[in-house]
Amino acid sequence: MQVETTRFGTLEIDDDEVVVFDDGLPGFRGRRSMVLLGGGEMPGGQPGDGHHSLFWLQDITDPELAFMTIVPWTAYPDYDIDIDPGDVDGAQVDDLCVLSIVTVRRDGGGVTLTSNLLAPVIIDTTTRKGRQIILQNQDWPVQAPLAAASPTGGAPSELGVDTGPIDSEQGA
After folding, report:
1. Could you tell me which residue, 152 or 131, shows the higher pLDDT?
2. Is there a contact between 35 and 17 (Cβ–Cβ < 8 Å)?
3. Which of 4, 7, 75, 86 could connect to 63 by a Cys-Cys bridge, CB 3.0–4.6 Å?
4. What share of the chain is helix, strand, coil (3-state, %, to 5)?
5. What is the pLDDT of residue 108?
6. Which residue has the higher pLDDT, 89 or 16?
7. Is 15 helix (H, G, I), strand (E, B) or coil?
């Protein structure tokens, strides 16, 4: 199938690459079908492991809706969470992909990136089912500092991320 996007143009996606969010994402309940696009390795991660740590979660029906996400342990090595097995429909831990949604905020000419560690996106890579869960009884922040940049340059460009078209209100 072809997926139109504002960030990446027209993409050819196999049906089995679609991740279905039965309940949608909080704030985006009508958006149920997305595709996970590898964005590369995040600076500061374990180099050369061959795994992506930056991803885009792209809605397949709305070309403008895409969430920048990261594998949280790349930026937060002490991130330790307890996931209720009921939240993942009994999926095996080895079949789960855990991502944190990144929010880009423009402020006074600078850019700040934060990551939502309290409500990770969990994807069962076997069933291609996903959901964003809110962790209970855990003190992880909704806006964990990830990077900041001044108008003269800095971290976001080092991440290889074009922060231009990202709407700061889209981060969940």
Report:
1. 131
2. yes
3. 4
4. 10, 40, 50
5. 83
6. 16
7. helix
Whether residue 59 contacts residue 33, with contact meaning beta carbons closer than 8 Å, is answered with yes
Mean pLDDT of 59-80: 92
- What pLDDT does residue 94 have? 80
Is the pLDDT higher at 31 or at 114? 114
In a domain, residue 172? The reply is no
Cβ neighbourhood burial of 126 (10 Å; 0-12, 13-18, 19+)? exposed
Q: What is the pTM of this model?
A: 0.77
With tokens 């996106």, the residue in question is 121
CATH at 55 = 2.30.290.10
Backbone angles phi, psi at 13, to 5 degrees: -125, 135
Q: What are the residues facing 99 on neighbouring strands?
A: 121
How many domains does the structure of the chain reveal?
Answer: 1
Domain extent for 41: 2-162
Reported confidence tier of residue 35, pLDDT bands at 50, 70, 90: very high
Inside any domain, residue 43 = yes
Pick from 6, 54, 30, 37: nearest CA to 166: 6
